[in-house]
Amino acid sequence: MSATISEKYPNYSPGLEGVVAGISKISEIDSDRSSLQYRGIDVHDLAEHGSYEEAVYLLLFEKLPTKQELNMFQMLLGEERDVPEAIYDIMRALPKDTHPMDMVRTAYSALAAFDPDYAAPSTDREANIRKAVRIVAKGSTLVANGHRIREGLDPIKPNPKHSTAENFLHLFTGAEPNAETVKTLDASLVLYAEHGFNASTFANRVTVATLSDLYSGIVTGIGTLRGPLHGGANEEAMRMLLDIDSPARAQAWIDDALANKKKVMGFGHREYKKGDSRAFYMTKMAKELGQKKGDTKWGDIADILEKTMLEKKNLYPNVDFPAAYAYYLLGIPIDLYTPLFVVARVAGYCAHAIEQLDNNRLIRPTAIYEGDRNLTYVPVTERH
Asked: Active-site residue among 162, 269, 276, 352?
């Protein structure tokens, strides 16, 4: 009997699962305790009592800011939110059916040449910090005004006094956002900001490890995040909820899905066996938002799906599940869900890119070859 792959190659791990690919001080996932910490600070505390701007400062500068440092940092982000008109021209030139993820990826690629530190060496740490601040500051502007452009509307100039969440909601709606919607969106940005060596962050580190620049790493990360098995899962989760549509249909829908081995989006996570720590707080925020808006339908459907998935598959929801219906309750189009993920995650990408470049080694894994060997070359005139 032939040997199995695991017997033949005992060191091979499909998808690199369990393989240690680096050492980091940025975040830690504790699967046993279902916790996630950014540089030692629990994300629940950051989401509930802090802000996205505090999380960004922590990720980039390796400590929580003082009140004065936070105020200065918020001012700096506000000053950097605006985007060159040439970037909007590029976004306008894209086909109208371009996915917003492709718009923001293209915009960041073009932005690189407009950065004042464009010519700085990729190993210049101070220049990389300055680039990171600009990258983070412009994310919400790019996504919100990109949406306006595809809707045939003119971009709105950011208000430098707005936070990241306020900036997105203001540009997206054209009106001043209320505190409740800002808090819900801000919490999601905190929870999405960083998550270890996930696919897109690892891809970002691979890119900058070649001594490419931060913007190249960001573009790589966004391209990786676009896939439905990664960032796009929140979009698919909401489409699933819309397909169910009613709490009265939820039990039959989930029973049929499990019986026919259909993929149930928004459940399970490779890193969490006892539940995604981020989902706990995001679920609370999403359900509270539904109650305040008088629309508890999505939370009621979620309760049925969560109960059944836990009982029958021992799977908990991941953060994409509650974030999906929270965004829907905020009136955000489904195809902007993953771009909002980008708005948050560029902070983590930048932190990882800087950490990688601080103590760089080219990332070059090996592969197992199982193709043909020692074949005879046949001249093209003799091939049949």
From this structure: 269
**Domain ranges across the chain:** 27-227+335-358, 233-329
Chain-centre distance of CA 262, in angstroms? 25
Q: Do the domains 233-329 and 27-227+335-358 match in fold?
A: no
Q: Under DSSP, is residue 86 helix (H, G, I), strand (E, B) or coil?
A: helix
237-268: pLDDT as tens digits: 999 999 999 999 999 999 999 999 998 999 98
Annotated catalytic, 269? yes
Structure-token pair, residue 239: 């489409």
Catalytic: 230? yes
Catalytic annotation, pick one of 230, 295, 303, 335: 230
Active site residue 384: no
Give the tens place of pLDDT for each residue, 95-112.
999 999 999 999 999 999
Dihedral sign, Cα of residue 352, residue 357, residue 359, residue 360: positive
3 state SS of 25: coil
pLDDT of residue 231: 82
CATH dotted code for 27-227+335-358: 1.10.580.10
Determine the CATH number of domain 233-329. 1.10.230.10
pLDDT 10s digits, 296-342? 999 999 999 999 999 999 999 999 999 999 999 999 999 999 999 99
For residue 1, the model assigns a pLDDT of 52
